Amino acid sequence: MRITALYIYPIKGCRGVPVTSVAVDRLGMVGDRRLMLVDDSNHFISQREVAALATVIPALTPAKAGVLSVTAPDMAPLQLTIDPDAPSRNVTVWGHNVIVAADQGDEAARWFSAAIGAACRLVAFGTHAHNLIDPEYSPRADAETAFTDGYPLMAALQESLDDLNTRLADPVPMQRFRPTIVINGAKAWSEDDWTAMKVGAIDCDAVKPCARCVVTTTDQESGARSARQEPLRTLATFRTIPGLGAIFGQNLVPRNAGTLHVGDAVEVM
Question: Of 79, 165, 202, 236, which residue is the least packed, with the fewest Cβ within 10 Å?
């Protein structure tokens, strides 16, 4: 098996960015979901509630460490220097943990509120932030993630998408599932058997199938929802686990730091 694509999502819920290589640290991919929008109750905002997030396109400027550039329809571009030591704000992701995030200020709040049509603030996973993985699935008591839904990495198998697409009237691209790592070279749905893996230079534990939601029905280019609720409706007819619902992909927790490249070999241990 090999890595065929890598994606980071600099702002949770916003458009993904394809990369050819990426550093991985204890929280996952560097630059992945280290930023997030929160509502007036300091709870995260996602495409589940605001599909227009898919049209907000972030980029972390490599030449300027910590600089975020972002565009959205009918908006002037925003460039912002991320401050990991900005004033703190206690925020939640699914209510599991309270995370001490760094509020990125009023200018960013005004821009993003206008871009998505809802009051919000931009926060960073800053110097004082911690977010432990659900102990029911965590391979280590100290394993952490950033602002993800629960786990540092999510790997999806191309052959599984290919099989799903044979069941759909209108095939969907892999971006509907917002993976960080796309892998090919294995039997469809064989990710169910993954436990420990070597993904390029990174040793990983595969800890939990990834439960899917309405975000999979959102076109990641336009932000439009599928009127037929596809591919979620079809996926739920043959890929469900009690208590999780429809599943696609596997959540991974890295054991070490390193760098991933498109083309890297993947081995199931």
Answer: 79
SS (H, E, C) 57-83: EEEECCCCCCEEEEECCCCCCEEEECC
* Structure token pair of residue 2: 């090999």
What is the C-alpha to C-alpha distance for residues 125 and 66, in angstroms, rounded to an integer?
12
66: left (phi over 0), alpha (psi -120 to 50) or beta: left
**Residue 54, token pair as written in the block:** 């898919």
Q: What is the pLDDT of residue 62?
A: 61
Q: Which long-range contacts (CB under 8 A, 24 or more apart) does 25-29 make?
A: 25/257, 26/143, 26/144, 26/152, 26/254, 26/257, 27/125, 27/144, 27/145, 27/146, 27/152, 28/145, 28/146, 28/148, 28/151, 28/152, 28/153, 28/180, 28/254, 29/152, 29/153, 29/180, 29/260
Strands 181-184 and 67-71: unpaired
User: What are the tens digits of pLDDT across the range 132-145?
Assistant: 999 999 999 999 99
pTM of the predicted model as reported, rounded to 2 decimal places: 0.95
Placement of tokens 């912002």 in the chain: 80
Q: Which are the contacts of 224, defined by CB distance < 8 A and separation ≥ 6?
A: 51, 218
Residues of the chain with pLDDT under 70: 61-65, 96
Token couple for 28: 């996952």
C-alpha 194 chain-centroid distance:
20
